[in-house]
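Changelog note: in this version the structure field was regenerated for every chain. One regenerated record is shown below for reference.
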Amino acid sequence: MTQVGTGKHAYELVRDWPRMPKGESLGVVSRVATDSQDRVYVFQRKDPPVVVLDREGNYLGCWGIGAVKEAHGMKIVDDVAYTTDRPDSVAVSFTLDGRPLLVLGQRGVHSDTGCEKSPWLALRAAGPFNHPTEMMPHPNGDIYVTDGYRNCRVHRFTRDGRLVKSWGTPGKGEGQFHLPHSIAIDPDGRLYVADRSNKRVQMFSPDGDFIGMWTGMGGPNDITRAKDGTFYIAEQEDGDKPAYICIRDAKGQVLARLESRHIHGVGVDSRGDIYAGLTVDRSVDKFVRVGH
């Protein structure tokens, strides 16, 4: 194994970590998340969309056949999986054995933003949804969804699915977005939105008031907050720089940058081990924490 990082953020890299059943392989891996028992959930763009592994990489099971058109976002909070199905324009929460709990949006119905192709800058903001990217519950009980590939908004819903408000317009200014791609929320209720094509993370109050931003990064594909309050950001390649997993403290200070293969999703377990969801390489790399 290769060691990466230094000090408290030193890791042993295990490439192609999952131990899949004989004859089985992963598809395009969009996200990786962990539950309260450190089981690992791989959200992939093939059936079954969810593959469950133990923390050693052993295959435990799968679920969701036929339930997801194309996997995009997945976060696990209090042992509920919150997902987005990008081309179907829905955000769906599931139990950890695959039973749907809440569906936001109408399958196959897209809001009118005037955007149909790359570079995914909406011509105008619109309501939910047009290719949503992430779904996340808030400590206040509401649910937030980033609506990014063909929209430029964050939508807030009640826990039973009523739309409360939306914010965001296309652009580069404060509170504007160009492909909001993921979201994290801290215990104080602040929202951290990965504004991918603007290569930044913007912070907001629960009501959508702009608080600040972090810059100096490749386009953020995913942002995950660990239990110790640190943030893990999956950064795209940027110019001659490789893809990275960037670890920042609660104030945004960079603690470490770990070079990675092209990473679309980043998960962290209770021990501080990192799981990199790989779209291009169709796999998961594990970074086992050895520094303390």
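Spot check on this record: Residues 18 and 134 are 24 Å apart (CA to CA). The mean pLDDT is 97.
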